[in-house]
Write a structure and sequence with these properties.
Layout (H helix, E strand, L loop, with lengths): L3 H11 L7 H6 L1 E9 L4 E4 L2 H12 L4 E10 L2 E11 L4 E3 L2 E3 L5 E13 L2 E9 L1 H7 L6 H11 L4
Parallel strand pairs: 1-8
Antiparallel strand pairs: 1-2, 3-4, 4-7, 5-6, 7-8
Length: 156
Protein backbone atom coordinates (compact mmCIF):
# COMPACT_ATOMS: atom_id res chain seq x y z
CA UNK A 1 0.00 0.00 0.00
CA UNK A 2 1.29 3.44 -0.95
CA UNK A 3 1.40 5.89 1.96
CA UNK A 4 1.05 9.67 1.79
CA UNK A 5 4.77 9.94 2.59
CA UNK A 6 5.49 7.63 -0.38
CA UNK A 7 3.48 9.92 -2.69
CA UNK A 8 5.43 12.96 -1.49
CA UNK A 9 8.80 11.21 -1.84
CA UNK A 10 7.83 10.27 -5.41
CA UNK A 11 6.94 13.91 -6.11
CA UNK A 12 10.42 14.99 -5.03
CA UNK A 13 12.01 12.26 -7.17
CA UNK A 14 10.08 13.44 -10.23
CA UNK A 15 11.17 17.06 -9.63
CA UNK A 16 14.90 16.29 -9.59
CA UNK A 17 17.04 17.72 -12.38
CA UNK A 18 18.22 14.29 -13.55
CA UNK A 19 14.75 12.68 -13.53
CA UNK A 20 12.49 15.68 -14.16
CA UNK A 21 9.03 14.56 -15.24
CA UNK A 22 6.54 17.37 -14.84
CA UNK A 23 3.61 15.42 -16.27
CA UNK A 24 4.01 12.54 -13.83
CA UNK A 25 4.52 15.09 -11.01
CA UNK A 26 1.24 16.78 -12.03
CA UNK A 27 -0.50 13.37 -12.13
CA UNK A 28 0.13 13.04 -8.37
CA UNK A 29 -2.26 16.00 -7.78
CA UNK A 30 -6.03 16.04 -7.58
CA UNK A 31 -7.79 17.59 -10.58
CA UNK A 32 -8.11 20.90 -8.70
CA UNK A 33 -4.78 20.58 -6.86
CA UNK A 34 -2.53 23.59 -6.29
CA UNK A 35 1.19 24.18 -5.90
CA UNK A 36 1.85 27.35 -3.89
CA UNK A 37 5.25 29.06 -3.99
CA UNK A 38 4.51 30.93 -0.76
CA UNK A 39 7.51 33.35 -0.55
CA UNK A 40 6.81 34.59 -4.07
CA UNK A 41 3.00 34.63 -3.72
CA UNK A 42 2.58 32.36 -6.76
CA UNK A 43 -0.04 29.64 -7.21
CA UNK A 44 0.16 27.03 -9.97
CA UNK A 45 -2.73 24.85 -11.13
CA UNK A 46 -3.18 22.24 -13.84
CA UNK A 47 -0.67 22.60 -16.69
CA UNK A 48 1.05 25.44 -14.80
CA UNK A 49 2.43 22.88 -12.33
CA UNK A 50 4.77 21.03 -14.74
CA UNK A 51 5.66 24.38 -16.35
CA UNK A 52 6.76 25.72 -12.94
CA UNK A 53 9.03 22.70 -12.45
CA UNK A 54 10.48 23.10 -15.94
CA UNK A 55 11.12 26.80 -15.36
CA UNK A 56 13.07 26.17 -12.18
CA UNK A 57 15.01 23.33 -13.82
CA UNK A 58 15.94 25.61 -16.71
CA UNK A 59 17.64 27.96 -14.24
CA UNK A 60 19.09 25.10 -12.15
CA UNK A 61 19.42 22.03 -14.42
CA UNK A 62 20.98 19.97 -11.61
CA UNK A 63 18.28 20.92 -9.08
CA UNK A 64 18.20 18.59 -6.11
CA UNK A 65 16.17 18.55 -2.94
CA UNK A 66 17.91 17.04 0.06
CA UNK A 67 15.16 15.75 2.33
CA UNK A 68 16.21 16.23 5.94
CA UNK A 69 13.01 15.08 7.65
CA UNK A 70 9.64 13.74 6.47
CA UNK A 71 6.73 13.64 8.92
CA UNK A 72 3.34 12.26 7.95
CA UNK A 73 0.31 12.81 10.16
CA UNK A 74 -2.89 11.65 8.53
CA UNK A 75 -3.35 13.50 5.25
CA UNK A 76 -0.58 16.04 5.95
CA UNK A 77 3.09 15.49 5.15
CA UNK A 78 5.63 18.04 6.46
CA UNK A 79 9.11 18.05 4.97
CA UNK A 80 12.25 19.90 6.03
CA UNK A 81 14.67 20.11 3.11
CA UNK A 82 17.43 21.97 1.31
CA UNK A 83 17.06 23.05 -2.32
CA UNK A 84 20.40 22.71 -4.08
CA UNK A 85 21.69 23.36 -7.57
CA UNK A 86 23.89 25.38 -9.89
CA UNK A 87 22.60 28.59 -11.47
CA UNK A 88 23.15 27.90 -15.18
CA UNK A 89 20.06 29.50 -16.76
CA UNK A 90 18.12 32.76 -16.43
CA UNK A 91 16.32 33.16 -13.09
CA UNK A 92 13.13 35.23 -13.38
CA UNK A 93 12.28 37.92 -10.81
CA UNK A 94 9.55 40.60 -10.84
CA UNK A 95 12.25 43.13 -11.90
CA UNK A 96 13.68 40.97 -14.70
CA UNK A 97 15.94 37.96 -15.09
CA UNK A 98 19.10 37.29 -13.12
CA UNK A 99 21.58 36.08 -15.73
CA UNK A 100 23.32 32.76 -14.99
CA UNK A 101 26.03 33.18 -12.38
CA UNK A 102 27.35 29.63 -12.13
CA UNK A 103 26.88 29.90 -8.35
CA UNK A 104 25.70 26.99 -6.23
CA UNK A 105 22.62 27.39 -4.08
CA UNK A 106 21.83 25.52 -0.87
CA UNK A 107 18.56 27.00 0.36
CA UNK A 108 16.69 25.88 3.49
CA UNK A 109 13.00 25.16 2.97
CA UNK A 110 9.96 23.55 4.51
CA UNK A 111 7.09 22.08 2.53
CA UNK A 112 3.58 21.19 3.61
CA UNK A 113 1.70 18.67 1.50
CA UNK A 114 -2.05 18.13 1.99
CA UNK A 115 -3.37 14.95 0.42
CA UNK A 116 -6.86 13.62 -0.27
CA UNK A 117 -7.37 9.96 -1.14
CA UNK A 118 -3.66 9.49 -1.87
CA UNK A 119 -3.34 12.50 -4.19
CA UNK A 120 -1.93 15.97 -3.55
CA UNK A 121 -4.62 18.56 -2.99
CA UNK A 122 -2.32 21.40 -1.88
CA UNK A 123 1.46 21.73 -1.89
CA UNK A 124 2.83 24.76 -0.02
CA UNK A 125 6.53 25.42 -0.56
CA UNK A 126 8.18 27.75 1.96
CA UNK A 127 11.74 28.43 0.79
CA UNK A 128 14.09 31.04 2.25
CA UNK A 129 13.89 33.38 -0.75
CA UNK A 130 16.23 35.91 0.89
CA UNK A 131 18.91 33.23 1.28
CA UNK A 132 18.33 32.09 -2.31
CA UNK A 133 18.80 35.61 -3.70
CA UNK A 134 21.84 36.29 -1.52
CA UNK A 135 23.48 33.09 -2.77
CA UNK A 136 22.88 34.27 -6.35
CA UNK A 137 24.57 37.57 -5.53
CA UNK A 138 21.30 39.52 -5.56
CA UNK A 139 20.82 40.25 -1.85
CA UNK A 140 17.79 42.41 -1.07
CA UNK A 141 18.65 46.14 -0.95
CA UNK A 142 17.13 47.09 2.40
CA UNK A 143 18.64 50.60 2.40
CA UNK A 144 16.88 51.42 -0.88
CA UNK A 145 13.63 49.96 0.45
CA UNK A 146 13.81 52.09 3.61
CA UNK A 147 14.58 55.20 1.54
CA UNK A 148 11.72 54.49 -0.88
CA UNK A 149 9.26 53.99 2.01
CA UNK A 150 10.37 57.20 3.67
CA UNK A 151 10.01 59.12 0.39
CA UNK A 152 6.55 57.65 -0.17
CA UNK A 153 5.57 58.72 3.36
CA UNK A 154 6.89 62.24 2.72
CA UNK A 155 9.76 61.97 5.21
CA UNK A 156 12.71 62.16 2.86
Amino acid sequence: MTTNADVVREAYRLAEGDTLDGERFRALFTEDGTFNDVPNALTFRGDQIPAALAGLASAFPDIHRELLAVHAVGDVVAVELRIQGTHLGPFPTPAGEIVPTGRRIDVPAADLWYLRDGRVETFNCYNAANVWLTQLGAAPDFAAAVEAAATAAGRA
